[in-house]
Write a structure and sequence with these properties.
With 274 residues, the protein is an alpha/beta fold. It folds into two domains: 131 residues, Glucose-regulated metallo-peptidase M90, N-terminal domain (Cyclin A, domain 1, Orthogonal Bundle); 87 residues, Collagenase (Catalytic Domain), CATH 3.40.390. Helices cover 53% and strands 12% of the residues. A four-stranded mixed sheet has the order 1-2-6-5. The chain has a two-stranded antiparallel ribbon with strand order 3-4. A hairpin with a 4-residue loop joins strand 5 and strand 6. It starts with a helix and ends in an 8-residue tail after the last helix.
Length: 274
């Protein structure tokens, strides 16, 4: 009987822990953002992320609070000798949190670590084809998003992307768009939308533009979007997210329906920021 009572108590404690976990997270976050945004972080933002200066004042304030929470909750790991300091953390966090503005967010709840390499890194993946032959795929990457709670970034490419905020290429935006996509399971180009009825139009518009980009690649026709977006729907979503934030006017003019879908998803309208 005593063991049964003990198990019952432990079960109630576990349930209470799970039920109150979101509330405890919100409490911790409120406590974090109640502290002033450090002056040295403000200097880093202005130096390394000029995009910040083009944003409306209310979104600048919101972004700074998001940066505080992100840095508090995520672990940054330096690889191949790179030292993790405030400049690394703030530069990456600012670009990653750009995707979270105006949205109910768990701050990338599945993400635990950001691994930072000095420059492009090499990955090797073992694959088996239909005939059973095992082969190794060796790639040089500037970023990668994993479903097991990690994002890998090249610090060099992170700096380049941040310093050129209107060229439509940003590795941090790209990889963290994948993180949003992966919140619904495997990345497939369909992140969690506001309501279930939104998926029909999302699928229609993004599928149409994905096929159009594949046609551009096949016919060697220039496009606003990087050819890498034609790889699969997940990469297409990540690529168009880069362009949405960095070349919003061109995107709205050339692809108004696609821009509308992304604007509804991100709950932002950056066309008027620049």
């Amino acid at each position: 009987m005593l063991s049964f009572i003990l198990m019952l108590i432990l079960g109630c404690v576990a349930i209470a822990w799970l039920v109150t976990s979101p509330q405890r997270a919100q409490y911790r976050r409120r406590k974090v953002v109640s502290s002033p945004f450090p002056t040295r972080w403000r200097h880093i933002l202005k130096k390394r992320f000029p995009y910040f200066l083009s944003m409306p004042a209310d979104l600048q304030l919101q972004l700074k609070k998001h940066i505080q929470v992100f840095i508090h909750e995520k672990e940054f790991v330096g690889c191949e000798g790179i030292q993790i300091n405030d400049e690394v953390k703030v530069t990456i966090a600012a670009q990653a949190c750009l995707l979270l503005l105006n949205r109910q967010t768990g701050f990338y709840p599945q993400l635990k670590q950001i691994l930072v390499y000095p420059s492009a890194f090499i990955t090797e993946n073992e694959q088996t084809d239909a005939s059973g032959v095992v082969w190794y795929n060796r790639r040089v990457l500037s970023g990668e998003s994993w479903e097991n709670g990690k994002v890998i970034l090249s610090w060099h490419d992170t700096l380049v992307g941040a310093a050129a905020p209107f060229d439509g290429n940003n590795v941090v935006i790209h990889e963290f768009a994948h993180q949003l996509d992966q919140e619904s399971g495997s990345a497939n180009g369909a992140p969690i939308l506001a309501t279930s009825k939104d998926y029909q139009q999302w699928s229609k518009v993004l599928s149409q533009e994905f096929e159009a980009l594949k046609h551009c690649v096949a016919t060697n026709t220039p496009s606003l979007f990087d050819n890498y977006g034609a790889t699969n729907p997940a990469e297409f979503f990540a690529v168009v997210s880069e362009v949405f934030f960095e070349q919003s006017q061109s995107m709205a003019a050339q692809y108004p329906e696609l821009y509308k879908q992304l604007s509804q998803f991100y709950r932002l309208d950056p066309i008027n920021w620049h």
